[in-house]
Design a protein that fits this description.
By secondary structure, the protein is α/β, with parallel strands linked by helices. The protein folds into 3 domains: about 425 residues, Amino acid/polyamine transporter I; about 140 residues, Rossmann fold (3-Layer(aba) Sandwich); about 140 residues, HUPs (Rossmann fold, 3-Layer(aba) Sandwich), CATH 3.40.50. About 60% of the residues lie in helices and about 10% in strands.
Length: about 750
């Protein structure tokens, strides 16, 4: 109806959001290539302090075969994640923010933000951790230098480099890369000096470490110490907004860095196993420096690795924050999203610098160090989940240039979660709680993304699966009945007047299908303009609502066609809400609609009068019950009164109102029998505190008044008689026609 194929047919606000995002991304500088922008920072982050100071300890505890197994397990997890990251980045136009951008484009801003915010904080705190590591190496050479002065001086140099430009940081990293290469060459040269003179111990005895007085340690505890060495694969992806070709550079640079790092770690493990006995490996953390052909260059490599890791994190963290700010995830997002003329996220850098400085003043981050690792692992897990979901949904929009088998992303996700709980179960739970709290906060923010995500496809897939499963079960849905209303609308103001009443019938699990009917009282344009706002208001009240407009000239016949159409759908309305028209000429249309509902097993609620449900007024509900086919004898259901009783109960609960059950008898001789019947109904239907009354014909006025009276609709409907009920009771009335799917006793 609105889809004309013209760009002007799109909503103006959605169109401008998308175009603004596109223009902004085009305007952002794309400076770095695969080698400098992805490969080098990723490689330098992986080849870090653990390689220099802890790999020997790992080999001493686990033996060469055990160490290789730990290394392969660690790199398998990050390798699978790297493949997932590579695959998804070849399918999307990744913006600023790295992992945040990837997750947001698939699972929405709320999920992306709930992972991105802790990731940013972890990246910032990691800078302080690396500075502490750099200081430890520095004091190895200059033990008299004060620790605080070293930390602050190192931070000052790092911040100055990052402030000038990321380009300068990457140029410095080339020099650091050269130093690390020289340190590895020093190791290789030592081979020719005869250092590899010890026999290989293939499986270790896991004696432990000096810190625990060599009381022993388990395989997984050694794995937990080594595993952080294999992380850092997002160092290049964090620069996603400033790569010349992110779609090519991230996969090639990341996987090349992971592959080369794996070879280095495996080779070093063999060299260490042959270069020193087990006792020396577990006792001396500086074994790599001492056994190389030139120790000072290995020490320089250690200092360079920690400095480089700190610099990479300090350059990458503000880019994550800038990405969060550009999507208004954080308060003051526009300020954080601002870039300098040279494309540097200076504002985001200032906040990051403040966080790092505050962390340095704490002097010890050992207590929260595991939490930092958890946030990284949680991000990696979400990357794998994104790809697994995209692969499973098989949407046409998922057509990456790099395709990977589905087990890869699944194993990557499971491996990340496994590693989390192996490294530190307590901090894993804390990390999950933090992410959940942030996600709940962002849900309440009602964030709007310039592009869609795949969540709708995920929900549709789950719904389709559930629909198939329901179809395999018994057709009876008495125990799962909900008030799913079809509400025909000719004038929006009439719907507005019944807004609260409709909510109270449907809430909490029911849904509304609003059908706008043109032809007599409203134009198509009026309904199309106003119904979306009404549907949104219902949703805000916790009642899911959707709308459609049918352009018709005849109300009755076209609504009948709509009812027949919806009857064939799975998520179909089960009750049609009608109002008795004041115009006698239109009442025949209502008769025809009710008959159509009978034939299609759809319930009807026919409202006579306008309920005035003021908060301070009478909010009681009277449900009138006639004897069934078996008289006043309770059977497996209430005959024609099930829908009336169920709707009355929902109003009682949502209004917090008094509910009365009223039996209509032909003469006083049946009074005792009717009272017992009402008592049994109240008990069997589990309606607490329901008052019971018995009324004879023409004495309905003896029953206390109510905000609304609900009756079972008679088998032969006389609309004039129904109208008289409202007049006699001087209150709105509603007549309920059962569809056959309701059972108030179920």
């Amino acid at each position: 109806m609105n889809d004309t194929g013209d760009d002007l047919s799109r909503p103006a606000d959605a169109q401008s959001l998308a175009e603004q995002a596109e223009q902004k991304e085009r305007a952002e500088p794309r400076l770095f290539g695969t080698f400098g922008g992805v490969f080098v920072p990723t490689l330098l982050t992986i080849l870090g302090v653990i390689m220099y100071l802890r790999e020997g300890w790992v080999v001493g505890n686990a033996g060469l075969l055990g160490a290789w197994l730990i290394i392969l397990l660690s790199f398998a997890i990050t390798g699978f994640t790297g493949l997932s990251l590579s695959s998804i980045t070849t399918n999307i136009r990744i913006g600023a923010g790295g992992a945040f951008s990837v997750i947001s484009q698939s699972l929405g801003l709320e999920v992306g933000g709930s992972v991105g915010m802790p990731l940013y904080l972890a990246q910032a705190l990691a800078v302080a951790m690396y500075i502490f590591g750099f200081r430890a190496g520095w004091q190895w050479v200059f033990p008299d230098h004060p620790a605080l002065i070293i930390d602050l001086a190192t931070f000052g140099v790092l911040f100055l480099i990052a402030f000038i430009s990321a380009g300068l940081a990457f140029k410095i990293q080339y020099a650091i890369l050269a130093v690390i290469i020289l340190s590895l060459i020093s190791v290789v040269i030592s081979v020719f000096g005869g250092v590899m003179e010890h026999p290989v111990k293939w499986w270790g005895e896991f004696p432990g470490s000096p810190e625990n007085a060599f009381k022993g340690i388990g395989f997984w505890a050694v794995f937990a110490v080594f595993f952080p060495a294999s992380t850092g694969i997002m160092a290049g992806a964090n620069m996603s907004g400033e790569l010349k070709n992110a779609r090519r550079s991230i996969p090639v640079g990341t996987m090349a860095a992971i592959g080369l790092s794996l070879i280095v770690y495996l080779g070093l493990a063999y060299w260490l196993a042959r270069s020193a006995p087990t006792e020396e490996l577990v006792r001396d953390y500086a074994i790599m420096i001492e056994k190389s052909s030139w120790g000072p260059v290995v020490l320089a490599g250690l200092l360079g690795a920690t400095f480089s890791s700190a610099l990479t994190s300090l350059v990458g963290a503000p880019r994550i924050l800038q990405g969060l700010g550009s999507r208004n995830i954080l308060p003051g997002g526009k300020w954080f999203a601002t870039r300098s003329k040279r494309g540097e996220p200076r504002n985001a850098l200032f906040l990051t610098g403040a966080i790092v400085l505050a962390a340095l003043m704490l002097r010890n981050l050992n207590a929260v160090a595991p939490l930092i690792t958890m946030f990284f692992l949680l991000t990696y897990a979400m990357i794998n989940v994104v790809v697994f979901l995209e692969q499973t949904l098989k949407l046409v929009s998922f057509r990456p240039l790099l395709r990977i088998p589905r087990p890869v992303s699944l194993l990557g996700a499971c491996g990340c979660v496994f590693a989390m709980f192996i490294v530190n179960p307590a901090f894993s739970l804390i990390a999950l709680v933090v992410v959940a709290v942030i996600h709940a906060y962002l849900i309440r923010r009602h964030l709007r993304a310039p592009r869609g995500d795949v969540r709708s496809g995920l929900y549709v897939a789950v719904a389709e699966w559930a629909a198939k499963k329901v179809g395999e079960l018994t057709a009876s849905r008495e125990r799962t009945w909900k008030a799913n209303l079809l509400v025909p609308v000719e004038r929006v103001d009439q719907l507005r007047r019944l807004f609260s009443f409709i909510c109270d019938i449907s809430y909490p699990k029911g849904f509304l299908k609003i059908v706008g009917l043109t032809g007599r009282e409203s134009t198509e344009e009026d309904l199309v303009d106003r119904l979306p706002d009404v549907a949104d208001d219902f949703i805000d009240q916790g009642v899911f609502a959707s709308w459609t407009v049918i352009t018709v000239a005849a109300f009755g016949s076209n609504l009948q066609a709509g009812i027949e159409t919806f009857a064939g759908t799975f998520f179909k309305p089960n009750v049609v809400l009608l109002r008795l028209p004041e115009d006698p000429e239109r009442r025949q249309e209502v008769d025809d609609i009710i008959e159509t509902c009978r034939q299609n097993k759809v319930g009807v609620l026919l409202l006579v009068g306008a309920p005035e449900l003021d908060e301070t007024g009478n909010r009681s509900v009277n449900v009138w019950i006639d004897p069934g086919d078996n008289g006043w004898e309770l059977g497996s259901n209430l005959g024609d009164a099930d829908l009336a009783l169920l709707v009355g109960y929902k109003l009682k609960m949502n209004w917090k109102a008094e509910m009365r059950l009223v039996a209509r008898i032909r003469d006083r001789s049946a009074e005792a029998e009717a009272e017992e019947y009402l008592r049994l109904v109240s008990e069997a239907a589990r309606i607490p505190n329901a008052a019971t009354y018995v009324a004879v014909p023409d004495a309905e006025g003896d029953v206390p008044g109510a905000a609304i009276h609900i009756f079972a609709m008679p088998s032969r409907v006389d609309l004039e008689d129904l109208s008289d009920y409202s007049n006699r009771l001087n209150a709105p009335c509603m007549f309920a026609l059962d569809s056959g799917q309701e059972n108030a006793l179920a």
